[in-house]
């Protein structure tokens, strides 16, 4: 089986030329609710080391989301990773477990990583634009993003990844400072402060639109090729 076919199979997709012969399993979505927490505000985020940054995020009250979250979701993985995956915001599962991408979208993300030989925590770091869950999984508000992005900026400075995979519209907006659609930005290499950025669809979007997984595979291939060039 080719790598592409293996990817499509992992993703629950059948190559188009086989679609009539094999049934395609459908992925499911996740939602839910939350309780409270909170305390003091943080200092100069741009100068923090990992422990200070983690503590600041855990007690952050910069935006109203601290009132409804169970806990802040800092990020997970190798703090010296070459690969950084940036998502949007914690959902219900992430809010409960305190780790990004642990629900259905996270399972899909893990499979996507696997398809290009990567594994959560091994040379990969995963973080979100927002560290607190927006109630009901609504879209982040601009003020929430503005309040939270210093944390992601500092994470990127500390990690110094070789490549960033921007997953979905909000990651793209922060990293590229552009409102354009994922569809219009994918397929080429962008830049965040000298770090190559590959744009791809958010796993939650792919769960709702399984045929788009084939395009995400192209994005992953571009990311892998870009990384290979960097490593030469
Ligand atoms: N979606 C995201 O963008 N991040 C998560 O951590 C979970 C779902």
Short description:
The protein has 232 residues and is α/β, with parallel strands linked by helices. It has helices at 3-10, 50-58, 92-97, 104-115, 142-159, 169-176, 182-185, 203-208, 213-231; strands spanning 76-77, 83-87, 124-128, 163-167, 189-192, 195-200. It has one domain (61-230): Uracil-DNA glycosylase-like domain (Uracil-DNA Glycosylase, subunit E, 3-Layer(aba) Sandwich), CATH 3.40.470.10.
Descriptive account of the structure:
It is globular and about 50 Å long. It has one domain (61-230): Uracil-DNA Glycosylase, subunit E. Helices cover 39% and strands 12% of the residues. By secondary structure, it is α/β, with parallel strands linked by helices. It has helices at residues 3-10, 50-58, 92-97, 104-115, 142-159, 169-176, 182-185, 203-208, 213-231, and strands at 76-77, 83-87, 124-128, 163-167, 189-192, 195-200. A six-stranded mixed sheet has the order 1-3-2-4-6-5, with helices on both faces. Mean pLDDT is 87; it is low at 14-42. A hairpin with a 2-residue loop joins strand 5 and strand 6.
């Amino acid at each position: 089986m080719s790598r592409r076919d293996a990817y499509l199979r992992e993703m629950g997709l059948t190559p188009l030329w086989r679609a009539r012969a094999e049934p395609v399993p459908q992925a499911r979505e996740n939602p839910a609710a939350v309780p409270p927490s909170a305390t003091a505000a943080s200092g100069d985020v741009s100068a923090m080391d990992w422990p200070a940054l983690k503590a600041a995020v855990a007690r952050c009250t910069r935006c109203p989301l601290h009132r409804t979250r169970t806990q802040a979701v800092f990020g997970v993985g190798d703090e010296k990773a070459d690969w950084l995956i940036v998502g949007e915001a914690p959902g219900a599962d992430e809010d409960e477990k305190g780790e990004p991408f642990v629900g259905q979208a996270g399972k899909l993300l893990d499979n996507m990583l696997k398809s290009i030989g990567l594994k959560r925590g091994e040379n990969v770091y995963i973080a979100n634009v927002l560290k607190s869950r927006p109630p009901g999984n609504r879209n982040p508000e601009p003020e929430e993003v503005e309040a939270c992005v210093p944390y992601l900026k500092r994470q990127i400075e500390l990690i110094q990844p070789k490549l960033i995979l921007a997953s979905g519209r909000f990651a793209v907006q922060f990293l590229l400072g552009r409102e354009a659609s994922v569809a219009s930005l994918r397929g080429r290499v962008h830049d965040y402060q000298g770090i190559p950025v590959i744009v791809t669809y958010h796993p939650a979007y792919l769960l709702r639109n399984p045929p788009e997984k084939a395009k995400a595979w192209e994005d992953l291939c571009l990311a892998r090729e870009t990384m290979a060039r960097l490593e030469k």
